[in-house]
Design goal:
Alpha-D-Glucose-1,6-Bisphosphate, Chain A, domain 4, 7 strands, alpha+beta, seven-stranded antiparallel sheet, about 40% helix
């Protein structure tokens, strides 16, 4: 294989990888709700307390919680997420995951819990410029894991009484 062929193949592969990396899956609201929400057979009080417990167990800092509205906001501790090339370019990146939960009674003895996770990054340069980038977590497995913990917490909370 000639040097020119290798270069063209490398260039083509590079373009393909960039195209794949920049492809963003956009979910419809119904698709989002299908993995962000779950229904539980329990009281609103038990579900609300269970979601709070799960957030705290996962290391989140609860910023607000209102049982009347069923709304909870929380965030993970901030951490440095600077990559090698960012550091070389004088950019520092920190980030955290923000979470919200909405717990509502949909009929007597049944509640709906909707979770939302967002990865929040803050990039700053040595010159004082900052840039915030928020990206929703669209991986259904992350929500499945969280709902499994919520379900376990509800079970423990209701069976221990």
């Amino acid at each position: 294989m000639s040097t020119i062929s290798i270069r063209w193949a490398a260039a083509g592969l590079s373009l393909f990888l960039v195209a794949c990396a920049s492809k963003r899956v956009s979910e419809s609201p119904l698709q989002l709700q299908s993995f962000e929400a779950r229904e539980f057979e329990t009281s609103k009080t038990a579900a609300f307390g269970s979601v709070l417990t799960v957030f705290q167990d996962l290391g989140y800092i609860v910023a607000s919680a209102d049982k009347e509205t069923g709304f909870i906001t929380a965030s993970s501790p901030s951490g440095t997420r600077t990559r090698f090339w960012e550091a070389i370019g004088g950019v520092l990146t920190s980030g955290q995951t923000k979470a919200t939960a909405f717990v509502e009674e949909i009929r007597p003895g049944f509640v709906s819990v909707r979770l939302n996770f967002v990865n929040a990054l803050r990039r700053s340069t040595f010159y004082g410029q900052t840039n915030d980038v928020d990206r929703p977590v669209l991986d259904p497995k992350a929500y499945e894991a969280a709902f499994e913990r919520v379900g376990n917490a509800i079970f423990v909370r209701t069976e221990s009484r």
